[in-house]
Design a protein that fits this description.
By secondary structure, this protein is an alpha+beta fold. Helices cover 39% and strands 22% of the residues. It has 5 helices and 8 strands. The chain has helices at residues 34-45, 49-60, 87-96, 99-106, 129-150, and strands at 16-24, 63-64, 67-68, 71-72, 76-77, 110-114, 117-125, 160-164. It has a 4-stranded antiparallel beta sheet with strand order 6-7-1-8, with helices on one face. Strands 2-5 form a two-stranded antiparallel sheet. Helix 1 (34-45) packs antiparallel against helix 2 (49-60) and helix 4 (99-106) runs antiparallel to helix 5. It is elongated.
Length: 165
């Protein structure tokens, strides 16, 4: 077997290094701007007419009430956010965040998108590490610029990015 190391010899050193960035946008579910979402659905996915009207109706009927003991607040319309616990909410959020795909592509970062969890990864030789770090930094900056443009600002601080080497 050509990939086996003979007994008593040390295996050759791995020369490639890898990096993974994990981005958690769970707070972003609550911050989706409905008007921006409608624009994204039209522009990116060609959703229009009665299909778009159904999404608008679904989101516009969302209300919130708060309880303190036996006291109930008035119902308040929710102009931002999509419900995390519904199939439509998850699908709409993925479509809303789809522009992140283009950012990863532009920076040459392999990626996986699953709802509010996004991962990008790169690998290369040891002497490529500074370029990989620079690529990741630029990619993360661009993703958060997109998030800032497309979200209601008071929830942004809950989103996180973690880089693993």
């Amino acid at each position: 077997m050509e990939n086996e190391t003979p007994i008593g010899q040390k295996p050759p050193q791995m020369t490639n290094k890898g990096a993974l960035v994990s981005i958690d946008l769970s707070a972003a579910f609550d911050t989706v701007d409905h008007s921006i979402l409608m624009h994204v659905l039209r522009r990116r996915f060609g959703i229009d007419g009665s299909a778009l009207s159904c999404v608008v109706e679904f989101l516009s009927k969302r209300r919130q009430v708060e309880y303190a003991g036996k006291t109930e607040s008035d119902y308040i319309a929710l102009p931002f956010g999509v419900p995390q616990a519904s199939v439509l909410g998850l699908r709409v959020f993925v479509q809303y965040a789809e522009d992140v795909y283009d950012i990863f592509q532009r920076h040459g970062v392999y990626h996986h998108l699953l709802a509010d969890d996004m991962q990008g990864h790169c690998s290369g030789r040891l002497d490529d590490v500074p370029a990989i770090v620079s690529r990741f930094k630029s990619c993360i900056v661009d993703i958060y610029a997109l998030v800032r443009r497309q979200t209601f600002t008071n929830k942004r601080q809950q989103d996180r990015a973690t880089v693993v080497w």
